[in-house]
Amino acid sequence: KAGVTQTPxxxxxxxxxxxxxxxxxxxxxxxxxxxxxxxGQGLQFLFExxxxxxxxxxxxxxxxxxxxxxxxxxxxxVSTLELGDSAxxxxxxSFTSGRSNEQFFGPGTRLTVL
Amino acid sequence: xxxxxQPDIHITVSEGASLELRCNYSYGATPYLxxxxxxxGQGLQLLLKxxSGDTLVQGxxxxxAEFKRSQSSFNLRKPSVHWSDAAEYFCAVVPLxxxxxxxxxxxxxxxxxx
Lengths: 114, 114
Description:
The complex is a heterodimer of chains A (about 110) and B (about 110). With about 110 residues, chain A is an all-beta fold. Chain A has no helices and 11 strands. Chain A has strands spanning about 5, 10-15, 20-25, 30-40, 40-50, 55, 65-70, 75-80, 85-95, 105, 110-114. In chain A, the strands form 2 sheets. In chain A, strands 2, 4, 5, 6, 9, 10 and 11 form a 7-stranded mixed β-sheet that branches. Chain A has a 4-stranded antiparallel β-sheet with strand order 1-3-8-7, with no helix packed on it. Chain B contains no helices and 12 strands. In chain B, about 0% of the residues lie in helices and about 50% in strands. In chain B, strands 2, 5, 6, 10, 11 and 12 form a 6-stranded mixed β-sheet that branches. A 4-stranded antiparallel β-sheet of chain B has the order 3-9-8-7, with no helix packed on it.
């Protein structure tokens, strides 16, 4: 069974631009969560989608948004990029939603904002 | 404030030596507890988890963790480390009675001496 895939793996943008990252979960998984990883703040939860609905959201500004499609694939979008948005963005999928479900992580998308 | 603390940012051990990585949490009720490992350029992989029951939890790759309620700790151990264990290790919690958001510690980077 293929793992979680994220595209692109690397991305360079400039301040003020917007970016869209994509995540394909493991086949059969319906929950997708997104995380931001930076050296200073560590791993922070962005949001979770389950059955095309946002189930949970972390403490990030409205510039960060996401969506999930009927095939469970998910995208996250960051508008009006800031230097501080440079980070590794990780996607994780699980069979269903809920705290006890094991999450499987993708390799991440490394975003650099210049 | 509620938090997850990994006191050691870096730990260096010799190959074949034993390992203990510390994790402390501050929540009123015992949360769900997890340990993840992240190898360079990779996403996170779940090593083990604790929800309830036996306080000594066995995980993958020869790791185990012990939950100690009196110390609010969930330390990760391995009797004999291998060079391939060099990675970053994250303790994480999902507080009970909350909104199911997972909270990660800042991580401990493990270095292995040959």
